[in-house]
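Hi all, long-time lurker, first post. I run a small reading group and we've been trying to get comfortable going from sequence to structure in the token notation. Rather than ask abstract questions, I figured I'd post a concrete chain and ask someone more experienced to write out its structure so we can walk through it together at our next meeting. Sequence below, copied exactly:
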Amino acid sequence: MCRLIKENGVELGWGLPSGIRVDTVSEELMTALKEAGCYRIGFGVESGNDQILKAIGKNTTKDQIRRAVDLAKRMRFETSCFFIIGNLGETRQTIDDTIAFARELDPDVAQFTMAIPYPGTEMFDLLSSQNRILSHDWNDYDYFQVGTSDI
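-- Answer (accepted) --
Happy to help. Here is the structure in token form:
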């Protein structure tokens, strides 16, 4: 895609705000993105604790995340990092680790969201078996949703 944008002389500023996987980041990729007009990149960090990253099946490490964010910043991309609080196995310490990691990474934007127990996930099955699902109205978990009582 980057090659086609460049070959066709498309001058367009664009970003990847939904994020890219840190294990796909290379200097070659970042250079191609930059040359094609990309100026903003998001990263789905999720946690600042390697044990939580492993537990949720992220298949990335804090070192990979550091390298990816550092490269993006050195190449002058705007950076966003997305974090999830409340994953299975989360403790006060792992939450503190995530907050400290967000500070260490120092992205332009750090977004924290709560873990959502979607049906079909291990989290949903476990919490459901413990009768801990507080709402089955998934709009209750959507921070972009504005109800009429909120207006």
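A couple of things your group might point at:
The longest strand covers residues 38-46.
The mean pLDDT is 91.
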